Every structure is written in structure tokens, then in C-alpha cells.
Amino acid sequence: MKLLVINGPNLNMLGIREPDVYGKSTYRDLCEMIEAHAKKKNIEIEIFQSNHEGSLVDKIQEAYGKTDGIVINPAAYTHTSVAILDALKAVAIPFVEIHISRVEEREDFRQISFIRPHAMKTITGHGFNGYLEAIDYLAEAL
Ligand code: DQA
């Protein structure tokens, strides 16, 4: 099984960015945690991060026919991007939406998620562990 983990803008700043919200562990820590988990579960994993909406769309399109499932944290684009929603619908690859923080307890503008109605599952507020839960969920479901 091959899974693709996609991270949106500013997630490369984990550890530096708002540690009270996102914790003190770094983006590298997150990648290492995901890679170790995938290895243990015998899942092939690719991790991609970009600050650019179009690059995220390109990556989703490139996954067509190559990836069994997607774990995606579109970060701020969650709340704004029809393009990411359309890309996910275009490739029709099952995906889990993940957020490190508990978005439903934050500002009003974070209450919109364009992708949520099409996600197999949404995980919020479980910190970095949410990514591992998403991987396990897809591994079980697919
Ligand atoms: C986030 C929540 C978003 O609202 C925010 O813009 C992010 C990170 C999260 O993982 O909690 O950048 O997706």
C-alpha cells in the first residue's frame, strides 16, 4: 500500500510557529514520526509540504493512479481552497483530513472546510498523533 501525506502552508514552521497551539516539536520530528510509523506498518509513504496552493494541486494530480490514499492537512487552505477540493475530487483518491489543533474550538474563519464533506474521516486536535491515526485508518479501510 502506498500513502501520500500532504502538508500545506506554514507546517514547515512547526516547532517555531505558535508553540502554544501546535507544540514544540518540529516539522522534521513530524516527518520522522510518520516515516517510522509507516515502516512499522509496512506502508510505503511519501511526505510532501508546500506553501503554494498550486503546488499542492499539482501534487494531488500527480498522485492519480499511483497512490492508494492521501492524508492531507491543507492548513490555511482548508478554509479557502476550492482548487484543492476540486483536485481531490478529480483524482478520487480516498483521503483523510487532519489538523493538529482542535480547529472547531478556534476562530470562526477556521470553521469552514471545503474538503471535509468528501473526506473519509476528519481528525482534529490530536497533535502529531492525528497523522498516525489517519494512516492507520486508511490502512484498515482500504
Ligand atoms: C491547521 C489549522 C489551520 O486552521 C491553520 O491554518 C493551520 C494548521 C492545524 O493543523 O491545526 O495552518 O491545519
Oligomer: single chain
CATH superfamily: Dehydroquinase, class II
Bound molecules: 1,3,4-trihydroxy-5-OXO-cyclohexanecarboxylic acid
As for the number of domains, it is 1
General shape: globular
Strand content: 15-25%
Low-confidence stretches: none
Taking all Cα atoms into account, the compactness measure Rg is 14 Å
Structure, described:
By secondary structure, the chain is α/β, with parallel strands linked by helices. It has a single domain, classed as Rossmann fold (3-Layer(aba) Sandwich). Helix content is 36%, strand content 18%. The chain contains five helices and five strands; from the N terminus they run βααβαβαββα. The chain has helices at 19-22, 27-40, 53-62, 82-91, 129-141; strands at 2-7, 44-49, 69-73, 95-99, 121-124. Strands 2-1-3-4-5 form a five-stranded parallel β-sheet, with helices on both faces. Strand 3 (69-73), helix 4 and strand 4 form a beta-alpha-beta unit. Helix 3 packs parallel to helix 4. The longest helix is centred in the first third of the chain and has 14 residues, at 27-40. It is globular. The relative contact order is 0.21. The mean pLDDT is 98. Residues 10, 73, 75-76, 78, 99-101, 103, 110 line the site of 1,3,4-trihydroxy-5-OXO-cyclohexanecarboxylic acid. 1,3,4-trihydroxy-5-OXO-cyclohexanecarboxylic acid is lined by residues 10, 73, 75-76, 78, 99-101, 103, 110.
